[in-house]
Amino acid sequence: MTIEFEALKPIVQMQTVLQTVADNMMRPQSRYFDEHEHEIPWDYIEFMNTAMKATGGGSLAPKEPSPSPSGRGDRGEGEKHPPIGYQLLASQIEMLAWGDVGMYLITPGGGLGAAAVQAAGSPEQRAKFLARFAGEKPTFAAMCMTEAGAGSDTSAIRAKAVLDEKANEWVINGEKIFVTAGDKSLTEYEKLGKGFIVVWASIDPSAGRAGMRAFVVEAGTPGVKITKLEHKMGIRVSDTAAISLVDARVPFENILGSPTVEKTTTGFKGAMATFDATRPLVAASGLGVARAALEFLKEKLKENGVEIRYGLPRQKLTNIEREVIDMEVMLKSAWLMVMKAVWMADNKKSNALESSMSKVKAGDVTTKITQKVVEILGPLGYSREFLAEKWFRDAKITDIYEGTGQINRLVVARQILGYSGSELR
User: Are residues 162 and 189 in the same domain?
Assistant: First the structure.
């Protein structure tokens, strides 16, 4: 089998479009929205909603991978290329994060909420809930898993869902924290379509992970309330919410997966399938930040007469040249890991190992590169004159959300060594 590294034409075309957006709409506003946390950039949201539909991108909601006509000049007219849905999505996300990762996170689309529906929902549920992202108004969805006592240990979730058989509804009670895009998914802004959150709760606490299920809770549901918007170190334009659910009633059919408890951990596996698909995308967003910082550093070095002399033995290079080249190697190797993970997702191959590996690598690389860029730039790197210090602050979240670096290392070790979660903790 021949492995090709040339980007397909649809990916190249989309990158060209998004480069323009990143240059003209995101970078010029990065500092303003960093300093005006929770202010919503409606112009960006509405433009992206219109632009992505006009170009056929629809939204950043995950889609079922499917073959599409090839745009490559070296293939015959009408010939098909393999599915590229997640590969295209990763490339889009990397480019938007290069522009501003916080603004990327508020690009209209389904995010983790839609990914959960895609991974654990029935065909009918996918048709019902994912279709709204193709509507006229920009729409958001969010995932609600983390609780005050259940962060990385998802088996400790205490939110409960009880079936009211007479009303044929689920009654959900619980508190969720650190919900990315929770405000835009739940608040019924006039400018937005009707969003939803996917709430992970237990239908049988005694069953442990086997009792975990996800429920689609729509905006406007009585008993659902945003109790707090977090003030954060980075990605400040993206809202991160705490959400309370008190006797929140959702239709019976809004459960993702079986409503009965079995001995298997089907519900938990649904959550993990979501992360297998999205962790490489989070990694891609971090690498967009790292690339932005590294390219800026090279521009500043060039302005000061420092050119990177590629091809020379390391001992003949200056220390700064070696450090820049090392950062480029880290960035490119991390990107290749992302592309392998999303290629596997597109081709319906199990990618739990590769997904977590790409997330671990990107978390490390993004943090190291942005920190080193600040160091090399010196006092100006630490000042607010440049965006370098912002990129440094934005970078760290890559190693935290959707599974911390430590947890993903555990996932990698379990996959390689063949241990279960209870055997290797």
Answer: yes
373 and 335 within one domain: yes
DSSP state of 402: T
Together in a domain, 378 and 349? yes
What lies within 8 Å, CB to CB, of 29 at 6+ separation is: 41, 44, 100, 103
The reported pLDDT for the residue numbered 209 is 82
Q: Find the domain containing 55 and state its range.
A: 9-113
CB-count exposure of residue 415 (10 Å: 0-12, 13-18, 19+): middle
Nearest to 381 by CA among 301, 321, 308, 310: 301
Helix (H) or strand (E) run with residue 235 in it: none
Residues belonging to the active site? 402
CA distance linking residue 305 with residue 317, whole number of Å: 15
Q: Please give the pLDDT value at position 65.
A: 44
The pTM assigned to this predicted structure is 0.89
Residue 152 binned pLDDT confidence (cut-offs 50, 70, 90): confident
Does 199 reside within a domain? Answer: yes
- DSSP assignment, residue 383? S
* Angle, in degrees to the nearest 10, between helices 266-303 and 111-120: 140
DSSP-derived letter for residue 310 is: T
Q: What is the DSSP string of 29-46?
A: GHHHHHHSTT---HHHHH
Asked, for residue 38, whether it belongs to a domain, the answer is yes
Nearest residue to 26 (alpha-carbon basis) of 104, 91, 105, 94: 104
269 three-state secondary structure: helix
Say whether both 259 and 276 belong to one domain.
Answer: no
What pLDDT score was predicted for residue 227?
98
Write out the two tokens for 58: 């629809």
Please give the helix or strand (H or E) that residue 379 lies within, else none: helix 379-382
- What are the contacts of 259-264 at 24+ separation with CB within 8 A? 259/163, 259/203, 259/213, 261/203, 261/204, 261/207, 261/210, 261/211, 262/210, 263/210, 264/210
Beta bridge partners, 196, equal 141, 218
Residue 374 shares a structural domain with residue 390: yes
Answer left, alpha or beta for residue 23, where phi above 0 means left and psi between -120 and 50 means alpha. alpha
Phi then psi for residue 395, to 5 deg, are -70, -40
Per the structure block, which two tokens stand in for 151?
């962060």
